[in-house]
């Protein structure tokens, strides 16, 4: 039996635009193809991310970058088959009675290849500096609105240590447990206590969605080339482990 057998709706929680496609694009497309309703909460606009060299370079460090990444996310999510998307801190992903809040990208610093840590200069309104209880309550609000069968987000280290990914994991897990909704963490490798999904049939859809994130990455053959020049293989396979 698969953990997805009885699932009718899934809420993905991600930290920045492009995370949904890079890490879970194949799974989102697969779920959508099976008629499972897919919702997406994105926590920040990726304001501190680098910009791919080219026509969009002028957006780096400006408010226009966040606006561009909002548009990119909308197009990519549509390509993958996402039914509805929300920004954390805005209704319905905001705790009742609180004014809207815009969580900002916290930034990161590389500790060593493949492992990130907090940036020394994160701003006061950065997601990673927000009270965990506030972030949990915002996610509880959207969970009550969407009522998913399953929540999917990062593992305890956020995949590679980015502080926003870690905060999203902690908050999404806390909100799921508060409402007794199953939570599955994303794994990049097989594990004995996890289910592995090989979704290469969704590759064309994932590539199309990746191309919409043109300010952050490019596609070169079977690789994603990030704004800093790092290359990673396009991932369609994914592991899920229930917590």
Structure, explained:
The structure is a single chain. This protein is an alpha/beta fold. It is 30% helix and 22% strand. The protein is built from five helices and twelve strands. The protein has helices at residues 19-33, 63-80, 132-146, 163-178, 203-211, and strands spanning 9-14, 37-42, 84-87, 108-112, 115-118, 150-153, 183-187, 195-197, 217-220, 223-226, 231-233, 238-242. The chain has a seven-stranded mixed β-sheet, sandwiched between helices. Strand 1, helix 1 (19-33) and strand 2 (37-42) form a beta-alpha-beta unit. The longest helix has 18 residues, at 63-80. It starts with 8 loop residues before the first strand and ends with a strand. The mean pLDDT is 94.
